[in-house]
Amino acid sequence: MAFSWFGRGAGAPAAEVEKKASATGKLVALAAGSGRVVWSPRDTVSMAQTGFVGNPVGFRAVRLIAEAAAAMPLLCQDRERRYEVHPVLDLLRRPNLGQGRAEFFEALYGQILLSGNGYLEAVGDGAKGLPGELHVLRSDRMAVVPGQDGWPAAYEYAVGGRKYRFDMTGSPDPICHIKSFHPLDDHYGLSPMQAAAVAVDVHNSASSWSKALLDNAARPSGAIVYKGADGQGALAPDQYDRLVTEMELHHQGARNAGRPMLLEGGLDWKPMGFSPSDMEFHETKLAAAREIAQAFGVPPMLMGIPGEATYSNYAEANRAFYRLTVLPLVSRVTSAVAWWLSEHLGSEIVLRADPDQVPALAEERDQQWKRIGEAAFLTEAEKRAALGLPPLAAEE
Fold it and tell me: Which domain of life is it from (predicted)?
């Protein structure tokens, strides 16, 4: 049996669908250009290169969130019961031949954190109308094609000059698009990496400066002053070139650190060092690292960034990380995935995180269970509802 309330047009005439459209949808479609690809305003590839591949703070923040969210236990239930065995759970346990549940969700969360958008593709036919496989598509290759009502009419996936078009006008949808909130874009989400772009550039520049200092003996080595016998302070061109070559070969770089210098007549060495103001680049780098961590919602203490005393201890920072960053992300993603799979299944199911199985939240769980268990004014059914548990069956 098909449930018409899952599809945009399944089981209902086109006129009814038009009545349900937003009054501003046509304006959005007009601004974007109906039927034409709308490209993301940010270069996702460059952001991933500079903020993830080339920055250790961004890399660790994304991996920390994605791995924690992918390892979060999930519950599958409907309005009546919670399922230990369900076709949706079987599908998510092995979404495709190349990925297990952890790898699949880690890739999905990583795409959302880096680009603000996550795309899932339904492939083939599986049990009870569900897809046979699920695949995470790269967000930098996907483009939205808005329809006349402003909603996506299709998605275009481009690889090496070739494009594949996913039609979104039927039901069920072949693509699930999960996006973060973006106040200035109708079709794409805003990623934490975009918000931290300036801090990433500052941190990378400070790292490049530190590397340059190491290549030059970790400090301005000093100045070689030439004073000739006749009082002239200028070297001949061949003398200058030979001196520069000698410095580069025998006295510059980490491998030559500490090597004594032999100066010929007329050359004098004037050592130089940093002033306290010149050394502030180190604090600037730490401040940029804290900004990157804050943009992703990761307590800097968990990243090993010094100078952060917001939380009294590591355990408190870890609880805040799960409660304020991981759980909201998992809740948003699993809700979208559950509704998308419900459209394929033909009946509504709910996927949500199970914080009771997270060791970092064990203390909060014990306090909540104790508080609700000792509430004498609540019935057993109300206590189960307060804990997010489905009602017991009549025979139980």
Answer: Bacteria
